[in-house]
Amino acid sequence: TEPPGDDTDTDEADTDEPDPEREPVLTASYRGVTEDTIRLGVVLFDLDSILALGVDVGYGDQTEHIQIVIDEINEAGGILGRQIEPVYRLISPVDAAQSDSVCVELIDDHEVFAVIGTLRPPENVLCYTEAGDTPFVGAPSGDLTDEVFEKSIAPFIFPGRVPSRTDGAILAALELDDAIDGQVLAVHGTDTARIDRLAQELLDRGATEVVKTVEVADESDQLELAQELDLFVQRYEADGVSGVINLGDNVAFLAAFNRSGFGIPVWTTSPDVLADFIYDQGATDDELRLVRLVGGETASDLYEAGHEPTVECVDRWNTARPDEPAVPNPGEDDLNNIGVIVIACANLDIFVRAATAAGTDLTVASFTSGLD
Fold this sequence. Notes:
This protein is of the alpha/beta class. It has helices spanning 10-16, 47-51, 62-75, 96-109, 126-129, 146-151, 163-176, 192-204, 222-238, 251-260, 285-288, 299-304, 308-320, 338-358, 364-371, and strands at 37-45, 83-91, 114-117, 136-138, 156-157, 184-189, 209-214, 243-246, 266-268, 291-293. The protein is built from 15 helices and 10 strands.
């Protein structure tokens, strides 16, 4: 028997050899994305404008909350080799026109790829996600509605509970307290459609009557807001309301209870009742005791429970800025900064994860796929 011959075609074998792996090439793939950088807008509350309204939120150095995390990301190589280049802007939470002008500036003048941060009212997110083809990662303050998500074309990423889940939790809390059946209740907020939906749910679950109060006063005019809230509280008292669901913020709302001397239980999802600034417009411990806060764990709860990402975030800050430490469950002499520090870490973590999963060809479409 003859030995087997070698019938392999040398040229064919060479052709079938796999190509050596090539390093991905970074390009200027989209607005705000170059071979070396990703330009990221950062919107933060103008704390001076809040202080002018008589409220000291005690957040401390907001820019540094973000920058310390960005520096660590960039020092570790950035996002697939691209460095994050932040563009910071402060906005007044009671000036919607300024918020929109900052949005246009960030998109048209600075050509940012995406934006993170905090806005008020939540509808201002749509300047980015509906009109501007710009992803937004952040926690809008105020009466967030499902409509903001529905209208968004570019991704709107909210690191919290969507309104439908929040409203369900409020209703469950009321039922646990046996506070619906046969009761006269009130629903207060800024979004008429959401107020109407909750009011109908309460009636369906046995409430005898629901008083609806819609806040329309401009928050920049504290006298006008106080007068409007005083009228609402008078109506609650006259109509025999036994409890109120407040879908908005509580600082001015509880102060109105204090001025009237009338008080009823308040179900809310706003964690502002945990901060010292809840007293800034006149509320006292008597009003605070009326509040039923419906929500998940706070940043303080997570830190004290040893939640790893929260602990890492807070400890990084405390090491970098021992002059402004983040103290769990802050007292009167402490900054109320632990929550905003953890939100800054969460926003950046979500952005980095999605942008990394998007791959080297970073666009809004690939970012959306990466987020999914």
